[in-house]
Design a protein that fits this description.
Layout (H helix, E strand, L loop, with lengths): L3 H30 L5 H31 L1 E2 L5 E2 L12 E4 L17 E2 L4 E3 L6 E3 L1 E4 L1
Antiparallel strand pairs: 1-2, 3-7, 4-5, 5-6
Helix pairs in contact: 1-2
Length: 136
Amino acid sequence: MSDDSSSSGCGTTIIGMIIIVVGFFGGFMQFFWADTHDVGMILFYVLVVPMISFLVGAGVIVYGMRKRIGTVGAFGLAMNPRMASVPKERSFIYEPPSFCKDCGASLTSEGIEWVGPLTIKCPYCGATHKTEKREI
């Protein structure tokens, strides 16, 4: 399945670049071809023609990219609307319970013994408990 917005954006980007390059070199070539000693015409060919071609070419490029850019998020960063529906990656940690459910003793991370990847052992009564999953 082809994406029409990316192919049209690529085509308009190329057309915009061609407008910029042709206008830039065209202005300078007109300066050399024209037989003029007028400073105003020299400035027109060297400065105005390339600047106008740059603005027109940049406008064509931006016009072609309008669908690819999507919405603008915080700090001016472009966000792809398709990426907005992707859920954020969540992080979890596993903490031992703060109290033993059998003897009621207070458990700290320094005083417990790990007997499995997610299982601890109470140092007072020897009961084992699962760790609690908590999102960061």
